Amino acid sequence: MDSKEPPTHINNSSMEITQSLDEDPLIDGPLISPDILDKAIKREFQQLPTSWAALLLSLVHVAFVCLSVVLAVFCSILQSHQDQCRDYLSNLPSSPVIVFAKVCLWLLLMAFERYVQRHHVAARGRGYLQFYRATRNLRSLPVYIHSAGNAAVLMVLAAEPLLKGVKHLSVSLLLGILVLELLSVPCLLLYSVRVQNFNRERPEPDVSQEERSHGYPSNTHPLSTETGFRDGSNLEDVVEKQADLIEYLKQHNTQLSKRILSLTSQQMRE
């Protein structure tokens, strides 16, 4: 009698497991094809529309410096054209006009930096962390250069009463500052080239590239992913990179869960 009891318990437990599997809608539902899921999850590549703004700002900057040099030479340094300059400038000296135009250019640079930052933050959210970090200095360096130039111009204007002993010294210093600020133009041009290359290559997010390199290592795709702190590496950069990667993975997992639920409900209705 006792030897027959264990099979009874085994049969009962197996029946309960079978019943629970039959009642589970996720297991009993249709399976999702991996190809369909990949197509649903994969986003179309979004280009960065910021290269044209960098090129346009470079042209505006070069034109501003050239016009400022012409205005300063003909209206302040040369004596023969000062009467014509007074008529065109409404009796204003050339230096205040140049400084006012420089302030307008600085405001354009600030608007450009905010516009570019917004698009690059969106690209970082789509998983392009390395490109965001590689172009960070190119985006901010022109603003730093012009801000330093503004400080230098303020110093020249403040010391202008002391510089009256040397003829045209303040105007020459002002033009020298404007010429030095042209160093921001190569930064803008290099940034524009990098953005155009990025849009042309249409790369996948960094996580996808790293997974592919881990899956298929070769000489052309070395395993250079830094997942932790190494001797000689910058701890701050490692922590920042990992924080960006975690934020992207959280957003990606949220989107993945929504897609899976949506496709599952569609197939259940079919």
TrEMBL record:
InterPro entries this protein is in?
Answer: TMEM192
Q: Provide the alphabetized UniProt keywords.
A: Membrane, Transmembrane, Transmembrane helix
The residue ranges flagged as biased composition, category Basic and acidic residues, are: 202-214
Q: How does it sit in the membrane?
A: Multi-pass membrane protein
Where do the TM regions start and end? 52-77, 97-116, 141-159, 171-193
Question: Which compartments is it annotated to reside in?
Answer: Membrane
Question: Polar residues composition bias: which ranges?
Answer: 216-227
In this record, what's one Pfam family? TMEM192
Write out the ranges of the annotated region (Disordered): 202-231
What's a single GO CC term here? late endosome
What PANTHER family does the record tag this protein with? Answer: TRANSMEMBRANE PROTEIN 192
The record's family statement is: Belongs to the TMEM192 family.
This one is known as Transmembrane protein 192
UniProt source species: Conger conger
Q: What is the lineage of its organism?
A: Eukaryota, Metazoa, Chordata, Craniata, Vertebrata
